[in-house]
UniProtKB/TrEMBL annotation:
It comes from the Bacteria. It comes from Uliginosibacterium sediminicola. Belongs to the CpsD/CapB family. Belongs to the etk/wzc family. Residues 400-470 form the Tyrosine-protein kinase G-rich domain. Its main location: membrane. It is a multi-pass membrane protein. This is non-specific protein-tyrosine kinase.
Amino acid sequence: MMNSPQAAQTTAETPFVSLAGGLSEESKLELLEYWRSITKRKLAIFSLGLFVAIVAAAIVYSLQPVYSSTVTVLIEQSKNKVLSFDEVYGGISQDKEHYQTQVEIIKSREVGMRVVKLLRLWEYPEFDPRKDSDSWVNTLFQSIGIRSAPPKWNDESLANAAFYRFSKNISVEPVRLSQLVKVSFESRDKTLAASVANTIANAYIDLDREARFKMTQQANEWLQDRTKMLRDKLAMSEQALQSFRDKQGIVSLSGSVQTIIGQQIGDVAQRLAEAKSRRAEAESAFNQVKSIKDGDYTTVPAVIRNPAVADAKRQESTAALKVAELQQRYGSEHPKMVQAMSELKAARENLNRQMQAVVSSLTHEYETARSTEKALDNALNAARGTIQNVNRQEFELGVLDREVQSNKQLYDMFMSRAKETNVGNDLQSSVARIVDPAVVANNPVKPKKQQIIVIAMILGLFAGVMISLLLDKLDNTINGTEDAERRLSQPVLSALPELSDEEAKNAITAFIDSPDSQLAESIRTARTGVLLSDIDLTHRVLLITSSMPGEGKTTVSTNLAMAHAQTRKTLLIDLDMRRPQIGKRLGMPLSAKGISSLVSGASALGECIYTMPGSTLSVMPAGDLPPNPLELLLSQKFKETLAWLRDQYEVIIIDSPPVELVSDALVIAPMVNRVVFVVRAMKTPYPLARKGILRVQRSGGRMLGVVLNHLDFKKSQRYYGSYSGYGIDDYESYGYGSKKSEA
């Protein structure tokens, strides 16, 4: 007893592994897919590249050639300046900025306009703006109001209009690590190109000379004005100095006055010090005398040291000694005694007089010393005031003198600079000179024909490659066995070849009619795949379906059934009860009984089965078409009939409707062992086929694999390098012959 459909549904399935070894779709579509995309359309890609190159060549050779001439100019730092303008105008740059500035000057509008006017470029067709204004396009735009009427041309307006085109053709390029500048000009007239290049260089040099001459004139005028101002300022400062000398009565302050006054101050200071010393001594003696109250000045050293007082003191002592000696001999009334007493009295009176005189002298000396000290002190202060006044005068005089000297130096410097100015020599030393004049070019620089043609061809090839890759990206059909396995994630049982119209008429019996054909061999390959799956099963029920009609499922079903009939008892059932094809294409009568009659019980098995001529294959057509085929397929009677037929035959192949139109195949799928999905190569969109396979799997059907039908082997081998059978040469070498295929 065979396994029930439920048991078949629950059987564990081994997930299909793509031939790509488990690589992701992104990885597979990298280099190999790109290369295949390019090689399969290599002729078209090369043709596109060649066509683009031919078009580019036609355009390039129709263009008018453009010639270029170059003049080399040496730009130098000015060695002999008009005057030392470094100090006046801040100097000339000595670094690369100076050369970049000169380059910009060469490209300036002033130089360009001078060249345009010198050569009257508007008289050349290439630069004549009147040519465009007279064109029919411009006239049309003027008539509809898009453009205004052309201006009234004169030399100035023509020069301005020509300068715009002139500026686009000039090129100024400094030579790295040098003082050279290359000035190039492009024109369709090679003679004009050389003439314009040389004129640009000469115009730049002339303009530089004019600018330098103008600067020289301005500098001379500035020098004259500045010199006059400095001369007047110097005269005013000298006059102010002399006026100050006259006002202060100064003959010279070169140091003599300060020396004299200094010596005077030193003498007075010395005398003052001596006077202070004497006043101190006199004051000491005066204070001692003043402290005596009883008139006895004998204790005052200054009085005692006086010679007159000392002499009077000796006389008084001598007289006293004489009185003392006489007192011992005589009495007080003795004449000698009286005389001695009189001498003693006279000596004492003399002593008092001398001491009084010394006291008076000390007092006078003290007063005199004080007066002298005060007078010397006043004299010293007066001398100090005098020298301070002299110092102030000397400072003011020094300020005025320095101003005179500064003005004189500045005036002398400008006079010296003015004398050094040499306009003639400086004008001979121009900032630039031509070292290599432009010559007439013999070979054009534009267009570079060979380069443009090669680039155009490369771009054409690149565009062809991009288009090929884009077409492959937009192509969602299945183009080979590897493509089918990668996109559908199902093994490919076999690939059937594309047949000619004549071969397609008898394709349903091709396995019997042409056993050596590629189609027959492909069917054998599919049969082998079926037999190798579920190898332990003795009874197999296969469902053959597809996504849409016209993919060849009926042809595959019939030929696969014929192949199995050679070795096993096989039954082919047509369950496409909406558009049955097997009975019709095998030549059975329209009234032939079939599966519908057997399920409904209207006919016996023998009445519903037909034997294929030339084969042992049993065929059961659809029979009478029921009004609702789905109800028939869902009935218990159909399930029982299918189970009974499975016991009677070793292989049952069922041809069912497409899964995208009706759900008949989805109802039958859980009742069979395996489902074979037919896909038409290079026509069926793989998302549609993948969706159909997924629906079958979700309904409980177990996929066996995919049959790729209508595959152009030669094209597939050329495009993709492989397919499910042997190569074309292999078929011929094994004696199968070659069949005509449609591209």
